[in-house]
Write a structure and sequence with these properties.
- This protein has one domain: Heat Shock Protein 90.
- The chain is built from 4 helices and 5 strands.
- The chain has helices at 15-30, 34-54, 100-107, 136-150; strands at 2-10, 60-68, 71-78, 110-116, 120-128.
- A 5-stranded antiparallel beta sheet has the order 1-2-3-5-4.
- It starts with a strand and ends with a helix.
- 24% of the residues are buried.
- This is Histidine kinase/HSP90-like ATPase domain-containing protein.
């Protein structure tokens, strides 16, 4: 089984808790461990907040999450003027602001930043899912692996 949630959201701070709660509810229903869900919520919040703050030319943005086997993949896509992630300034972990990239890198298993020339930016985040004992997601999402190995 694979699960996908994709939303096109207004570039407004009110949109962040909407997608965060939708994804968390899905992960909770599958039985993903709480600390993993909290990491994903914070990563997603930081990525969406960066779009809201920095994607000047964009009225909306898209969040696409895919749950497959034991992975959660998130893409946050904006249609702004793009952001040069290689030139992002390094900030102190104790700084009051500007720590979003550091937070995403600390919590995600994999982070990729893509600048699309004149078409905005994409933040790709991946996190390995750990499940509670007897969680529905353990059997539902991991079914693909056992089915594939029997073929």
């Amino acid at each position: 089984m694979e699960a996908t949630i994709a939303l096109r959201l207004p570039r407004d701070a009110a949109s962040v808790p909407v997608i965060r709660q939708m994804l968390d509810s899905s992960l909770d229903a599958l039985g993903v461990q709480r600390h993993i869900r909290e990491d994903i919520q914070l990563m997603l919040s930081e990525a969406c907040s960066n779009v809201i703050k920095h994607a000047d030319d964009s009225d909306d943005y898209t969040v696409r999450t895919e749950l497959s086997r034991d992975r959660c993949s998130i893409k946050v896509v904006d249609a702004g003027s793009g952001f040069d992630f290689s030139g992002a300034r390094q900030v102190s972990p104790s700084a009051e602001s500007g720590r979003g990239l550091l937070i995403m890198q600390a919590l995600a298993d994999d982070v990729r930043f893509v600048k699309r020339e004149d078409h905005g930016s994409v933040v790709c985040l991946e996190k390995t899912l750990l499940f509670e004992e007897d969680a529905p997601g353990k059997s539902l999402l991991l079914t693909d692996e056992s089915t594939t190995s029997r073929r």
